[in-house]
UniProtKB/TrEMBL annotation:
Any one GO molecular-function label of the UniProt entry: DNA binding
Domain Transposase IS116/IS110/IS902 C-terminal: 248-334
Organism whose genome encodes this protein: Bacteroides stercoris ATCC 43183
Domain Transposase IS110-like N-terminal per the UniProt entry, residue ranges: 5-148
The protein's name in its UniProt record: Transposase, IS116/IS110/IS902 family
Residue stretches spanning the membrane: none
Gene Ontology biological process terms from the UniProt entry: DNA transposition
Range of residues in the leader sequence: none
Organism superkingdom: Bacteria
InterPro entries the UniProt entry points to: Transp_IS110-like_N, Transpos_IS110, Transposase_20
Length: 379
């Protein structure tokens, strides 16, 4: 007799329902500490449960998955796809509903990568977080300088450029003479805006408190940059040890270098069996146009929701590929612009094309061949 289990996962509790084929059920509630999870596992083993489905609630499902994955076939379920019909609702009924739809084969599991890919993903997403924090620290530094009426950010290309950072370091060190500070700015900036204008933008009043806060933000930024470098090195070591072939394959695509290749592997892994078609992985990444049509009228063609981390990596790679001279991606990008598409839509289309190629390359273990399409057309 087939037995399945549904788990409704919360921050501090887990509601369980074991369902038999004859309709009988066993319900219970467990805590989330490791001894409680061990009790849950032992109970499932004693009842000979073959399949377990659990909701992907925040990160609370991960410890449960790690303990149960050794003994059971697990399915991680998006709560959006198993919403109950309107009516009475409770946590116990949620667990029973999950078990019911699992028993009837009405749900499919979400993609859960293996342990090594999860390690890669942790480093990659930590770097994504660090990048945002670095930008925030730079913005706070500029806010302090603006308060001091130092307006150099109005003239440099960006607040992360070397000239700007040299000025910040000099001010932290106690330098306040505009004639000295202006010598740290790149000549191109001086020629573009005029030396006197740039010098005037460096003429302000900086208090000791301002210097102290600037130093704190500067040190935070430097520490975060160091952590990013450490994470990249660890990702590189993991990829070279376990995914060397895939790392090299991905780098044959225009716009994808070593770092981007490692980030892509961290998000999608190297086994494409979880994504049966290229269209499936495109939808999972949120790069597929929405099919919103009624009475023959198209209401929307916006891209769907999906993996925002992967989408960001692919859009950055697409931008690089679209600027690669004489590449098919550059021609595709320019062709879409000529048809009246916006730069953003054209870039999304190139990113989608890249992901389709990546799926095929990893599925077949073949490098990118720019001449492949031409050979087919010639034949």
């Amino acid at each position: 007799m087939r037995r399945v289990c549904g788990l409704d996962v919360h921050k501090d509790s887990i509601y369980m329902c074991i369902l038999y084929e004859n309709g009988s059920k066993i319900e219970s509630v467990f805590g989330v500490l490791t001894p409680e999870l061990d009790k849950l596992r032992d109970l499932l083993v004693s009842h000979h449960v073959c399949e377990v489905a659990l909701e992907s609630t925040s990160i609370y499902w991960i410890p449960i998955w790690n303990i149960l994955s050794v003994d059971f076939s697990l399915k991680l379920v998006n709560p959006y796809f198993i919403k109950q019909l309107p009516g009475r609702k409770s946590d116990v009924k949620d667990a029973e509903w999950i078990a019911t739809v699992l028993q009837k084969g009405l749900i499919r599991g979400s993609y859960v990568p293996d342990r090594m890919i999860q390690c890669l993903r942790q480093y990659e997403r930590r770097n994504h977080e660090l990048s945002k924090n670095i930008v925030h620290a730079e913005q706070r530094m500029d806010m302090i300088l603006q308060r001091c009426n130092i307006r150099i950010s109005n003239y440099v290309s960006c607040i992360s450029c070397k000239g700007y950072q040299k000025v910040v370091n000099a001010i932290i060190s106690g330098e306040s003479n505009p004639k000295v500070l202006v010598t740290l700015i790149h000549k191109r900036t001086l020629n573009k805006h005029g030396r006197q204008v740039v010098e005037d933008s460096l003429n302000g009043f900086v208090s000791d408190t301002d210097r102290d806060i600037l130093r704190q933000y500067r040190d935070e930024r430097m520490q975060m940059e160091q952590h990013k470098s450490e994470n990249k090195a660890k990702m590189q070591a993991i990829c070279e040890a376990h995914y060397c072939e895939e790392l090299e394959l991905l780098q044959t695509l225009p716009g994808i270098k070593e770092e981007s290749a490692a980030n892509i592997i961290a998000e999608i892994g190297v086994d494409m069996k979880m994504f049966l078609t290229a269209s499936a992985i495109v939808g999972w990444a949120g790069l597929k146009p929405r099919n919103d049509q009624s009475a023959g009228r198209i209401k929307s063609r916006k891209i769907t929701h999906g993996n925002k981390y992967l989408r960001k990596i692919l859009v950055e790679a697409a931008w690089s590929a679209a600027r690669t001279k004489d590449s098919r991606f550059m021609k595709m990008y320019q062709r879409l612009l000529a048809r009246g598409k916006s730069k953003q839509k054209a870039l999304i289309a190139v990113a989608r094309k890249l992901l389709v190629l990546i799926w095929n390359m990893l599925s077949k273990k073949e490098a990118f061949n720019p001449e492949y399409k031409r050979r087919i057309q010639a034949a």
